[in-house]
Write a structure and sequence with these properties.
By secondary structure, the chain is α/β, with parallel strands linked by helices. Helices cover 44% and strands 14% of the residues. It is built from eight helices and eight strands, in the order E-H-E-E-H-H-H-H-E-E-H-E-E-E-H-H. It has a five-stranded mixed β-sheet. The protein has a three-stranded parallel β-sheet with strand order 2-1-3. Helix 1 crosses helix 2 and helix 4 crosses helix 5.
Length: 250
Amino acid sequence: MTTFVCDGSFDGLMTALFDFYQLRPGPVCVVPKAVFESTLLGSEHEVVTDEAKATRVWEGLRKKLDTAWLQRMHYAFLSESPVAYQQLFDFACYIFDHAEGASANFGNESVRAVQQWAQMVSRERHRMKAFIRFQETAEGTFYAPVEPDFNVLPLIATFFRDRYADQKWIIYDIRRKYGLYYDLETVTQVTFEEAPEVSPTSEVLSDKEDLFGLMWKDYFKSTNIPARRNLKLHIRHVPKRYWKYLTEKR
């Protein structure tokens, strides 16, 4: 088996597909360089990302897939899973090698896999919309740290831009060390050498934040009905990994 080593980008994956059909090396394992470990077994091919090649492959997929499936591929890629990377490659090969409508064959392993990854990423996108809690900084910008399982910030930018169009905000992915900044006009990507500390005693927060936090907690306490408390159901809908960033859970 030949191992195709890519840079891990989406264009890198599309370029790998181009190289595969050009070289016809037989069975291929596609691996992002960040997780690649060389072995003595099999051969290796370094994929040099090429935008022109990637565009040709993507255009080919657009001719064979509808918008929903192209979106699923994008979502699956944002899972950042090396397994998903391989399954996206297999899915694209399956689509190219079969007649139109092949994407409806959920008996195919790669078709099912891309669908499942897309669903998981979509659920995480939905949770981010519900669980992000902004805190106002001393300079008036609203800040929200997050640690999503998948790289969903690109999928929520438009939602938060439209919903909070009248205030400056930053949503920062602590795990991936980048964030989105809205300056009342456009959303841009930002990075910090060190993410701001936003504990209740943090000096970067506005003096009003303590009051807002208390009001938010009181609201949740007043809407809670002790007799109907179901902790298992609550945790299923609000997993514990999100709690440290929820004002009402502090």
